[in-house]
Write a structure and sequence with these properties.
Layout: E1 12-15, H1 23-31, E2 35-40, H2 59-62, E3 66-70, H3 76-86, E4 91-94, H4 100-103, H5 108-114, E5 119-124, H6 139-146, H7 148-151, H8 166-189, E6 194-198, H9 199-205, H10 210-217, E7 234-238, E8 244-248, H11 252-261, H12 276-281, H13 283-294, H14 299-308, E9 313-315, H15 319-324, H16 326-330, E10 334-336, E11 346-348, H17 372-379, H18 384-392
Parallel strand pairs: 1-2, 1-4, 2-3, 4-5, 5-6
Antiparallel strand pairs: 7-8, 8-9, 10-11
């Protein structure tokens, strides 16, 4: 097990979360070098351990760089052990339904009275307050309420999902940002605080101008498929060899370069297309013109030609294309990770890049309770016999 070297090395994070919304926050901390101690139910563990499309390969990613211990939080002895562990921590992450920790007597008031600098991160569907707070709130519901579900997909079909658990991941990312902000403030005040990250609000935060478009102008943005209405050209375009590319040339200067690349420089001065507003008003017509041109060239030739003229464009990637792309390879965007059960395990690297203290994938998600002896022995000072007794009584 390699030593942490990222910018958060020296921080201790205790993670109580399950599934994605809490654990992805813990993954971000671990990626940046924090010691993340993941607390899991004995004999059960995080459901993510068994997730994956036919292969249980999700856990190695979301559990990476974490230490796994088991602890029964429904028992008083387990709750007391957690208090002792949290006494040593900088950050506590949880994503239970609001009120669960309080039911176990593990309130922030209780924990912070023992550890005043504790930052408690709480991720939930609707937040810790308001009439919806007690409700069960999965990512899909937060995505729907936050607005992204309504806009995702083709306008001819019902609202779609993005294809990944974007609501959970956004809430976890905002939770991590909030925790880092709270730690920065703690450096001045010496006091921790609660970071309350709601999934629906995390989605709402990235919804651009959809709210003021309605409040000021009465406009409700609708599903638009591959385009952004009134932003042109920015679409998926066909090629002669049956492939397709994504191209964005909606800025005036870039559209001029695209027009030159097409051998139709006059388009850039045509009143219908000369500025952002005109191109937006004539979006369909302009996309038809561009598609007719791109369809005369193979994808490779087309992309080379657009690059020569400084027009942003690229293929639509799946995992095979990512693994074979020289840009991904040059930056080690995807890394090989040793795993006892999976050969050729590859996963996304740690982002963003740091010039001096880059985070790394030090190990994949560990076995359930793999670090019980280390944490209960070295951190909490329990003896071997005490640890054995706790295990036999199903406390750990």
């Amino acid at each position: 097990m390699s030593e942490a070297s990222g910018p958060l090395a020296g921080l201790r994070v205790v993670e109580l979360g399950t599934l994605i919304a809490g654990p992805f926050c813990g993954q971000l901390f671990g990626d940046m070098g924090a010691e993340v101690i993941k607390v899991e139910a004995p004999g059960i563990g995080d459901p993510m351990r068994s997730w994956g499309r036919g292969l249980e390969v999700w856990w190695p990613i979301i559990g990476r760089n974490k230490k796994s211990i088991t602890l029964n939080l429904r028992e008083v002895r387990g709750q007391n052990l957690l208090r002792d562990l949290v006494d040593t921590a900088d950050v506590l992450i949880e994503n239970f339904r609001p009120g669960t920790l309080e039911k176990w007597g593990l309130t922030y008031e209780d924990l912070s009275s023992r550890n005043p600098g504790l930052v408690m991160v709480r991720v939930s569907g609707f937040g810790q307050s308001g009439p919806y707070a007690p409700r069960a709130g999965y990512g899909s519901i937060g995505e729907a309420m936050g607005g992204i579900r309504y806009l995702a997909g083709d306008p001819a079909n019902p609202p779609s999902r993005v294809g990944i658990s974007i609501g959970d991941s956004l809430a976890a990312t905002f939770a991590c940002v909030g925790a880092l902000a709270a730690l920065n403030e703690r450096a001045r005040s010496g006091r921790g605080q609660i970071v309350d990250s709601a999934i629906y609000e995390a989605v709402l935060a990235v919804m651009e101008s959809t709210v003021p478009e309605y409040s000021v102008g009465g406009l409700i943005r609708e599903r638009s498929g591959a385009i952004l209405p009134k932003t042109a050209p920015s679409n998926v375009y066909p090629t002669a060899d049956g492939d397709s590319i994504v191209m964005g040339a909606n800025q005036d200067s870039v559209f001029q370069r695209l027009a030159d690349a097409m051998g139709a420089s006059e388009l850039a001065t045509d009143p219908r297309y000369a500025d952002h507003v005109g191109r937006g008003e004539n979006q369909d017509e302009l996309d038809d013109l561009i598609s007719a041109w791109t369809a005369t060239l193979g994808a490779d030739e087309l992309l080379d030609h657009l690059e020569l003229h400084g027009v942003p464009a690229g293929r639509i990637y799946r995992a095979p294309e990512m693994l074979n792309d020289p840009q991904f390879q040059a930056r080690d965007s995807i890394v090989d990770v040793d795993h006892p059960a999976f050969e050729n395990l590859k996963m996304q690297n740690v982002f963003p890049r740091m010039s001096r203290t880059q985070g790394t994938v030090r190990w994949p998600g560990p076995e359930l309770g793999a670090h019980n002896d280390e944490v209960y022995g070295d951190v909490l000072g329990l003896t071997v016999d005490e640890i054995k007794t706790l295990s036999e009584s199903s406390i750990i």
